[in-house]
Every structure is written in C-alpha cells, then in structure tokens.
Amino acid sequence: MESSNHILIVDDHRDIRDSLSKYLAQHEYRTSAAADAAEARKLIDQSAIDLVVLDIMMPGEDGLSLCRHIRQTTELPVILLTAIADDTDRVIGLEMGADDYLTKPFNPRELLARIKSVLRRTHSLPPRSAPAESDKIHFGKWTFDVAQREVIGQDDVAIPLSTAEFHLLSAFLERPKMVLSRDQLLDITSGRSAKVFDRAIDNQVSRLRKKLEDDPKKPTMIKTVWGGGYMLTVEVSR
User: Fold this and answer.
1) Can you give the pLDDT at residue 187?
2) What is the mean pLDDT of residues 88-95?
3) pLDDT at position 47, please?
C-alpha cells in the first residue's frame, strides 16, 4: 500500500474535517475534505480518490444516500462514521456496500488502522469484469435480473434472492472463473462485518447452490476450491 493514498473526508462538522485531515497528513496521506454530499460528488469526479471517510448524519443528502451513489458509480472503498450506537445505520450502510464503519466519538488511531486495513484488503481483491451494460446478466442456464434482484430460469420462472444471496451472486458474476477466498467474499459482500471465524459465506453459498444447481450436493456452477475458496465456473455474458 502506498503511503500517498488520497483520502476524502466528508463531514458537515469543520472541526472533524480539519482535525482528521491534519492527522492523516501527519501519516503521509493526501486528503481532501467536503462539507456535504454535493461537494463530495464533485471531488470524487474531479480527483483521484482512493478511499472515502463518510459521515452518515449530514444535512441535505445524507451519508447513506451518498454511499449508495459511490457504490453504484465507482469502486471506491467507504468507511462510514455514525454518531448513533444503534446497529440499524451500520447494517443499512454495509448492505449499501460500505467497507467498514466507526461510531463517534472515536480515536483517530483506530480510524487510521481501519483505513490501512480496508485499503490493504481492497487492493488485494481480484479486479471486476467490465460493468454490465444492462440490468440482465446471463450465466449458464440462468438470467440474473439485477433490478429485480432475482434469477430467471429457462422456464421463465423467477426466483427471488435475499440481500445476502444477491451480493454473493453479484460478486461471483463480476469475477467469473476466479478463485475467491472466504475472506475476499466477506470483504466484497459485507465489508468484513462478519467475525473472522464466521462461516456465513459457506452458509450463503449453500443456499445459493440450492437455488441454482441441478444437484446442490454435487455443484458444477459454484465449485469449492479446496484450500482456496469458491469459483463460478460458467461463462458470463451481458
């Protein structure tokens, strides 16, 4: 990881923006700061940003809405800041694609550690394939309807996907025929919100296989790579 990574801090409190910018600069990060979502959008479009530190509670467009926009239009990792200890915003933020979160007040050293960890993980992930030109992706005998969050079989019967299944299938379709470890799948689908020894990915893969495979006990589409993780084996077209 290069020490000159460019961090965008988005917070409506000037003292937080200024103090974090100064602290990160002391650790050889380049920083930009935005007081609201509109300013942040401009900086993201105009600058080479590597990671966004984003406050959830802001006047006007809030951080969750901006997080959704960032995830839909870029590959930038996002760390959310929230003043609410309630898990609701955290869960919503992670479902929208945030990579990590911190509850205010926090120690800047902890934020620095989270930034380093997220950048290290995201830099190690296999690259995604080209973005879809439509909302429908074809793989094997299935069609993935992104907008409706469902898969459609050759019999035109649609099967709905849970949020976890949707993110997991999206991860496989964005990286077909690439071995993805459990840790990488956790990073891609949940921003490492699960515990290190959580078997959530195995359970999610099992549920997805039951919906997609002819014989879930002998999967041919989502294969287990022993010692590695999982791999989508079929061709993907858009």
Assistant:
1) 72
2) 66
3) 84
Sign (positive or negative) of CA dihedral 209, 210, 211, 214: positive
Under a CB-based contact definition with an 8 Å cutoff, are residues 76 and 70 in contact? yes
**What is the per-residue DSSP string for the chain?**
--TT-EEEEE-S-HHHHHHHHHHHHHTT-EEEEESSHHHHHHHHHHS--SEEEEES--SSS-HHHHHHHHHHH----EEEEES--SHHHHHHHHHTT--EEEESS--HHHHHHHHHHHHHHHHHSPPP-PPPSSSEEEETTEEEETTTTEEE-TT--EEE--HHHHHHHHHHHHSTT--B-HHHHHHHHHTT-S-TT--HHHHHHHHHHHHH-SSTTS-SSEEEETTTEEEE-S-EE-
Taking only the tens place, the pLDDT of each residue in 104-150 is 888 999 999 999 988 887 776 666 555 444 578 999 999 999 888 89
Contact (Cβ atoms closer than 8 angstroms) between residue 181 and residue 189: no
The dihedral of CA 6, 11, 17, 20: what is its sign? negative
Using left for φ > 0, alpha for ψ between -120 and 50, and beta otherwise, residue 35 falls in alpha
Whether pTM > 0.85 for this model: the answer is no
CB 236 within 8 A of CB 173: yes
- The answer on pLDDT for 152 being more than 90 is yes
Half-sphere exposure of 44 (CA within 13 A, CB side): 25
Q: Name the strands in the sheet holding 142-145, side by side, starting at the edge strand that comes first in the sequence.
A: 158-160, 150-152, 142-145, 136-139, 236-237
